[in-house]
Amino acid sequence: MPAPTNRFKQALRNGDRQIGCWMSFAEAVTAEIMGTAGFDWLVIDGEHAPNDIRSVRNQLMALSASASHPVVRVPVGDTALIKMVLDAGAQTILVPMVESAEQTRELVQACRYPPQGVRGVGAGAARATMYGSITEYIQSADDQICLLVQVENRAGMAALDDILKVDGIDGVFIGPADLSTDMGYHGNSAAPEVRAAIADAMTRISAAGKAPGILGTNTEASQAYLDMGAQFLAVGIDVMLLAQASRALAAEWKAK
Length: 256
Prior knowledge:
alpha/beta, globular, eight-stranded parallel beta barrel, TIM Barrel, single chain
């Protein structure tokens, strides 16, 4: 039995739009709830949420019956950490702060088994193989791993064309908050200069045959990114959704 087909990777290759949401609670029960919402993909955030490898694994388990595809954002592009996340069952990895083609090539290597890569071979006891029941996992896993690199500062933007030439990446995710701050706009991703840089990057990503992605945290931004050509778009963050809804509900009823 080969590794399961990565339907998210397949959708990106087909040019299908994928609408997703961020998950920052780092809890399996909230991941399971989010998995009922109908998003195409959900990010388990290991960079800014309080996740560790056990909580990542538990959220992957919570989403196993969901139609929403889990994307794990690791805190840093470390080979050992990527190995652990893949062994826990993730098939799609998002790596922040990618700034060069050399770094990108190292990430591709981390996601592949030898001789094409450097991923450690210990799958027999891992959740990725359903504890040895996916008997042809090692032979087939490389083709089903989806690697998304996150470009989110001026250095990454300057190296974007070189990054896009690296074989083995499926998409490039633009980080608007970090990019706008690095450009001197202190998180104001709606600044015209930032929007222009994002639009230009998305055009270049698409032209290179890769999928452009981004996160919008309000309706205006999400629509603007769709209009720029975002293919995989996250349209919210679970913590913000709860905060906004609960505050609005409290204000509505306290005003009566």
